[in-house]
Amino acid sequence: MDNMSFGADSMDPIRVNGNANGVVGDGKRKPTVNSDKIVAVLGSGDYGRAISRRLVNSGYTVYIGSRDPNRGKIKTLVRQTGATLTGQEAALAVAKVVIVAVGRDHYDFLPMTHLRDKILIDVSNNTERRRGPHYRSNAEYLQGLVTEAKVVKGFNVLSAYALENGGLQGSKEVFLAGDHADAKMKVSDIVRSMGFHPVDWGSLQASRDIEDVPLKFMPSWKRPVAVVFGIFVFIWILALFSFQICRNLASGNWHERWKHLAMQNFNRVIAITAIWTLSFCYLPGLIAAYIQMWRGTKYSRFPKWLDDWLKMRKQLGLLMLGLASMHACISVAYLTPQMTSWVYEAPTKIQAEVIVGVNTTSTKSISIYNSEFNWRGELFLTMGAISTCLLVVLGVSSLPSVTATLSWREFTFIQSKLGWVALIAAASHDIFLAWHYMFLYWGCFRTLPIGPQYALYPPFIAVIMKIPLLLPPVDNYLQKIRRGYERNSQYEIRGSEGV
User: Fold this and answer.
1) How far apart are CA 236 and CA 266, in angstroms?
2) Count of CB atoms situated within 10 Å of the CB of 316
3) Half-sphere exposure of residue 129, counting CA atoms within 13 Å on the CB side?
C-alpha cells in the first residue's frame, strides 16, 4: 500500500512531472497496470473518499482527482482510503472510467476536454424532486455537457457511511441507467466486484426516477402502516363503546371510567391489534395456497389485492412486534392482584375495626390480596412470554443481514413453523387471561363481544384454514403444484423436474 500515497511515484502510471507516457524520470519503463482496473474519482469529499476506499478494497487502482491536491488535510484523509490523490487532469489521463463525485452545481467547473470518450458514472442526488417539461436529471445534464462521453447513472442509492463500513449494505441493489450498453456492462462489473447487485433500469432518461429513489420516504411502509392504524382505530372505537360508553349508560354515571382511556384502553387495543396483525401475516399465504389448489397451477398471477397483501407481510410483522413489545411493557407496569384478580390466588378477607371518628370505630371487611398466580395466571404469563420471545426471533430473522446467514430451510422454519407457534401462543395468552369471562360475559348492551373474544376471530380463522392444509393428501398435492405440476396440462411436471 506504500505506492498508494498522496501523489505519483516511480510505480505510478502518472509520472512525477504529470506526464502519462509510462516512462519514469530515469528513462526506464515502469511496470504496466491493467487499465481496466484503474478508476478515477473526481471529488475528494466524503462520498468520493468512501467509494474510493471500497474500490481499492475490491482490487482497483484509484486516483482521486482534486482541484487542489496539495491541501494537507485532504492528503491525510485520502491516505486512509488507499487511493492516490492527484490533480483532476492527471487522474483523467490514465483512467477510462471516471466517477463524478461532485454535485451538479460543480459540473460546469470540470475539465470537460479531458472527459471526452470516458465512461462517466454520475453518483449525485437531488435535494428535492424536480419536475417539469424541461426537467433533466443530473446525469442527463452531465451528458449534455460532455456529449462525447458515455454517462451512466449509478451508486446514488448507496450512502458514504454504508460504503465505508464494509458489507453493511452488501448485496444491496444498485440501479443503473445509460444510453450505451457497453458502458453499463462495464459499470455492472464494477458494481459486482464491490459486492453489490446491479439492476439495469434502461436508458439515461430513467435516471430521473433513480435520482428520486433516495428522496422517497419509506414507500414500502405506507400501506402496512395505514392498515395497522386502521385496525387500531376500529378496535379503539369498539373498546370505547364497550368499556366506557355502554357501562356508563348502564350505571347512569358519566364520570366513571374515562381515566382509563390513556392506559388500560390503549393497552387492550394494542394487544388486540398486535394479534390481528400477526394473523394477517399468515392469512394471505393460506388464501394463496387455496387459490393455487383451485387453479391447479402456480403459474397464474394472484389477484392484485392478494399480491399486495403478500408483499407487505414483513412490514406487518415488524409493526406487530412493536405493538406486542409495547403491550408487554405496559402490562408489566400495572398488572396487579387488584387489577386482574382472576389470575391470582383468592385474596384473604379479614374483619377489622376501623377508626372513623375521634371515639368511633366501625367493623369493615378488608381483602389482603395474594401475590401468587393461580394455574390460569401462570399459563397466561407463560404463553405471553413464549409468544413475545418467538416474535423477537421472527423480527430479527427478517433483517437482511440475518437472512443472508440462513439457509432457505432455516428461514422457512423460523418464519412459518415458529411463526405459527407464536400465533397459537398469543391466542392462548388471551384465552387464559379472560377464561373467566370468555364464554360467560357479553359486552355492550349484552350483545356485543368483549375484547378478548373478538381478539381471537382472525387467529381462529387462520387456524381453521390451516388445518386442512396439514392433511397429508392436501399437503402433498399443494407441494406438487409448487414444484411445477399443472393440472389438466399436457406437460405435467412431476417431482423436481422443471423447477
Assistant:
1) 8
2) 22
3) 9
Q: How far apart are CA 35 and CA 25, in angstroms?
A: 21
According to the per-residue pLDDT averaged within each range, which of 39-48, 167-176, 244-253 is highest? 39-48
Residues near 245 by Cβ (< 8 Å), separated by ≥ 6? 444
Give 495's pLDDT tier (boundaries 50, 70, 90). Answer: very low
Ordered DSSP codes for 115-173: HTT-EEEE----SS---STT---HHHHHHHH-TTSEEEE-STTS-HHHHHTGGGGTT-E
| pLDDT, tens only, 214-263 | 887 778 899 999 999 999 999 998 888 877 777 777 666 766 667 777 78
| Cα angle 350, 351, 354; round to 5 | 125
pLDDT in tens, 323-363: 999 999 988 887 887 777 777 887 788 887 877 777 788 88
- Model pLDDT, residue 15: 44
Backbone region of residue 31 per phi and psi (left: phi > 0; alpha: psi in -120 to 50; beta: other values): beta
420 touches 281 (CB < 8 A): no
User: pLDDT by residue (tens digit) across 87-130?
Assistant: 988 889 889 999 998 888 888 888 998 999 999 999 988 877 76
Q: How far apart are CA 35 and CA 209, in angstroms?
A: 32
| 430-457 exposure pattern, b = at least 16 Cβ within 10 A, e = fewer | bbbbbbeebeeeebbeeeebbbbbbbbe
Q: pTM of the full predicted structure?
A: 0.69
> Which residues lie below 8 Å from residue 362, measured CB to CB, with a gap of 6+?
353, 354, 356
285 vs 314: CA distance, rounded Å: 12
Judge whether 491 and 305 are in contact, CB under 8 Å: no
How do the residues of the chain divide into helix, strand and coil, expressed in percent and rounded to 5?
A: 55, 10, 35
174 contacts 157 by C-beta, under 8 angstroms: yes
C-alpha cell at 441: 360475559
Whether residue 30 contacts residue 24, with contact meaning beta carbons closer than 8 Å, is answered with yes
User: How far is residue 326's CA from residue 321's CA, in Å, rounded to a whole number?
Assistant: 9
